[in-house]
Each structure stands twice: as C-alpha cells, then as structure tokens.
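Dear colleagues,

I hope this message finds you well. In preparation for our joint manuscript, I am sending the Peroxisomal membrane protein PEX16 (Favolaschia claudopus) sequence together with its predicted structure, so that both groups work from identical material. I would be grateful if you could confirm receipt.
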Amino acid sequence: MASSKAESGYEAVLLNNLPVISTLESSLRSLTWFLPGRFKDAELASEALAASLNLVSMYHDTLLSKVVQRDPKYRPLIPSSLHTRFTRAWSDKNARYKWVARALELIRFTELVLEMTLRRRVSPRARWRSVVLLEIIKCVVVSLLLFFALSFCVSPDGPLLSPPIPEREFDPSTLPAPTDTPSPTISSAEDYLLPKALTPSSVKPSHSLLTPLSSYRDWVAEILYIIRPLVYVSLLVSDNRRSSRPLVTALILEVISRNLRRAPPPSAALERSEYARRDRDIVWYLLRGSIWEAYTKPKLESFADMTARTPLLGLFGALIKDWVPLIDEYYYYTAP
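The corresponding structure tokens are as follows:
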C-alpha cells in the first residue's frame, strides 16, 4: 500500500512537470558526450550519468504507458510503430517475458559502468573474466526470451527484436496534464483519413507481426547471432587482444547467420527492419580488433591532427582524441 501511494505520488509529480523533466533528460544526455577527457574519471562519470538516465527513462516510460492506457480519450496522432505494438503485446501477454526483457535492458544500460568500475578495482584478468561472465548471463537471458516465446506458441515469433521492450514514441510534454479537462482529440479530417492509411502490417494482430521460426536454417541463424558476442569475447580473453582471430571468427558467424536467415517478404515490415538494423551494426566492426588498430584508428587520429586548428572541425577532432583511448581501453564501448 505504501509503495502504491509512493508510485502514485511520483506519477503525479512526473505528469505535472513533464516539460521540465523531458528537457532535463535531453540536456543531460547531450552532456554525456562531452564529459570524457575533461577531468579524472570523467568517462566513469559520463557513463554513470548515461546509465542512470536510461534507467530513469525506462521507469518513466512504464509510468507514462500506464497513464495513456488509463485515459480512454487519449488518441495519438501517429499510430504506434510495429516494434512497439509487438513488444508491448508480448509484455502484456507474458509477465515473465516482460521482466526478463527489462532485465536484459538493465544489463545493457549498466555493463559499461560495471566494466569501468572493475578496471579500477580488480586485476585485468579478473576484469576480463567478469566481462565473459556478463556475456554468459546475457546469452542465457536472451535464450530465456526465446524459451518464453516458444512456451506460448508452436515456435518463437521470428527473430528477437532489439530492444525487446517498447520504446518511447511520443514527446512526454505533449501528454495531457492530470486535470478534469477532456483530453485533446484529432480533427474530423484526420479521424477519417488515418484509418484509411493502412499497410498489410497495420491490420495484422500484434502477435502476428513476425513470422515464427520454422526451419532449422532459421534456428541456426538466430542461435549463431545470439552466441556471437560470447564467442568474440571468449576468444579475446584466450588470445592476445591484438590477435585477428576473435574478429575474424565473429565476422564469420555474422556472415553465416546473415546467409542462413530467411528473406522476409515485403509485407513483413517488422522483420525486415530488424534485419536491416543488424546489417547496419556490421559497421561497428570498424571499431573492433585488428580493423580498428590497423585501419580506423590511424585514420581518425590523422583526421584529428589535420583539423586541430580548423574552426568547428577542430572541436570534432578534439572529441575524437578524447574518445579514441576509451575505445582502446574498454570492451563495451564497441562490443557486439
């Protein structure tokens, strides 16, 4: 009862101060990009602030979604994205999925802060063992999400989405304040036109937005994608960190997974967007291992030196100089 009253009180404070809180969150997020290199342990302060903001935002999103669901008159001008529809449907359908998905996001929000703390308190060997342990935990958590999906249907509903929880899709400052005045509604013209702007995914039930994994190729592709980070960090620990074997192995797993996965039809918009995100993430390999050491890092350092005395570009070059040592030192800045 006391916790419920405290939550209700905090919710009222949140709703009454949405514009201020939203502006503060945005300003602090921008600040985290400029803190590294400014003072001792600035990178730890920056990442601790970023992790705290992510956790607070996740809690705020939970409260705001409850507010929206309780208000039958609230109608968003733009319909929810396919990602939000699907992840919210699964979270509402399966409480275990919801809490495991939140736990996964909690780990992702705090993993870099944990690595930075370990670097300052334990030996390098113990630090890397902890990173491997954390990747094992993440692999188990992702497997649990697949298991929960499997327990509710014949086969899991397609590839696991990232993030596995609904994202905020509206400006919190646009929500109605907690007053007795009616919530704003859309105009009659918009009311008529929005339902007409349909795609095949718009009329599908939220649980059917992804096609279930059916063949062994689908399963192998998804499992290889899931274990790829664990294999990569395990090889980093067993080999020299400058060895090319971890990077090559991870890339091979990435390519095999990509070639084994099915080609979704044009109507499978959500699955296509998830695979497109995975394809874009391949660019991060430019900041890993031997590719980073032999190609990307020298290019960035050369650019920073050339633009040191150039207006505006010099500021960007200074930021690069501040971030390059962090990419060298910390695994989770560019982890798969």
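For the figure legend, we might mention the following. Residues 180-187 have pLDDT under 50 and may be disordered. The CA atoms of residues 86 and 207 lie 6 Å apart.

With kind regards,
E.M.
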